[in-house]
Amino acid sequence: xxxxxxxxxxxxxxxxxxxxxxxxxxxxxxxxxxxxxxxxxxxxxxxxxxxxxxxxxxxxxxxxxxxxxxxxxxxxxxxxxxxxxxxxxxxxxxxxxxxxxxxxxxxxxxxxxxxxxxxxxxxxxxxxxxxxxxxxxxxxxxxxxxxxxxxxxxxxxxxxxxxxxxxxxxxxxxxxxxxxxxxxxxxxxxxxxxxxxxxxxxxxxxxxxxxxxxxxxxxxxxxxxxxxxxxxxxxxxxxxxxxxxxxxxxxxxxxxxxxxxxxxxxxxxxxxxxxxxxxxxxxxxxxxxxxxxxxxxxxxxxxxxxxxxxxxxxxxxxxxxxxxxxxxxxxxxxxxxxxxxxxxxxxxxxxxxxxxxxxxxxxxxxxxxxxxxxxxxxxxxxxxxxxxxxxxxxxxxxxxxxxxxxxxxxxxxxxxxxxxxxxxxxxxxxxxxxxxxxxxxxxxxxxxxxxxxxxxxxxxxxxxxxxxxxxxxxxxxxxxxxxxxxxxxxxxxxxxxxxxxxxxxxxxxxxxxxxxxxxxxxxxxxxxxxxxxxxxxxxxxxxxxxxxxxxxxxxxxxx
Length: 559
Description:
Blueprint: H1 2-16, E1 48-49, E2 57-59, E3 72-76, H2 77-83, E4 94-99, H3 105-108, E5 113-115, E6 119-123, E7 136-143, E8 147-150, E9 166-172, E10 175-177, E11 194-200, E12 208-209, E13 226-231, E14 234-235, E15 247-252, E16 264-271, E17 281-284, E18 290-294, E19 300-304, E20 313-317, E21 324-327, E22 329-330, E23 335-342, E24 346-352, E25 357-360, E26 365-368, E27 370-374, E28 379-384, E29 387-388, H4 391-394, E30 399-402, E31 411-419, E32 422-425, E33 429-434, E34 449-451, E35 465-467, E36 492-506, E37 509-523, E38 548-551, E39 554-558
């Protein structure tokens, strides 16, 4: 067992050095030895299962029969056998080479050739300029028994590839002889050379429908409602049909028929500055809208055969502009008129951000936001701690109502508003959920030190700092009944409830100082900021004189 362990350790060392120990012509496989035939590769050590021989393999001693000189260093297997008869087995399976300083060829930057069948050689003419071969010694790995198996090959593909069927896989190995020449009948390894196992391509997939095809044309071109059809195909397996219908019907409202050939719709499309807009699409509003006409180079359009018995609206659509809507006005002479004004798309922006709220568990809380732009945003999305809330469950719009709040619903809330012109995001608002009986504003004020004049020391150490107290401006629980709307109320915050006047002795006089004696909840102080800006016309960039500035719906300034 000791010999077997030693051989296995030698094999492991050889495998571990596979990237560093040169076997064959690993240093430069493309070299052909200066016109000589390259040595044939020996069997890879990874292919040999030497353990099947029962005793493994072991390394020989190191040999060095030639010294570098002349053409290089040559350590041929034939010469080693001549000088050291019986020291090398008949068929070595691996070879190692190192310099006499125990360095690998690649560590000294030399090109060498090594083969367990031939031996080793290093040619001076193959080395880098100015370099000659080092003095090398080599050793061989010899199996301790002359018959052993190669490693098993990979498993073959399954003999049956159809789903739901079973077949077999095989793998093989070769019986290898370490001696040079023996009778064929003597090469016998214990065990089988072929191994088989059952295999399967797996169960067949369930039948599945392919994607629906496009909708076909409507069964009616105009007038009363019609139907249209789309189809899909079944991807069958083992002739099992798919569950469900292969066709689907849908009602399609047709375009209006030109039942009033003597009537005409005329109109114009312009910008807010009165500039004509060509190639604007004009639709008759309905479900779905019906394309009537396109405006010409002068912004004019006309459509015939449109009856004027019932009131109707037309809409104008053009890239870069918000959709405009206008009623059709009839003058009683068979001609109807519609004039549309388009406004350029304006990215939405927030005009009302949600505010921080504090609630006791079980109460109701309302968050509000509002955005403006062209067109005015109508789609709002609410997020809790960055996660989108389900609109179908909470039924929110620009207003989010949470009933019976729990501690798990505490955190930050913000909203997004989107239009075809873009998306805008509100500032986050913090929701604090208190347990029953928990205080958000403690009556005892927090320490807050002020510096007194030099003649007013407060202790033996001469400190001139005095604690006047402060109330942290934390939000307080509000009244859900009073805060259910989206008004601009100040809310409730922790603040000063009561102050006291104290007199501090200062060099023979008394300095009156007011200190905070008690904190409590009350209306929050409203911060004031200065907003500056410049107003210009959107189309010309001209400064806008005598304009009016509004904050929300309230006028705050003239330009």
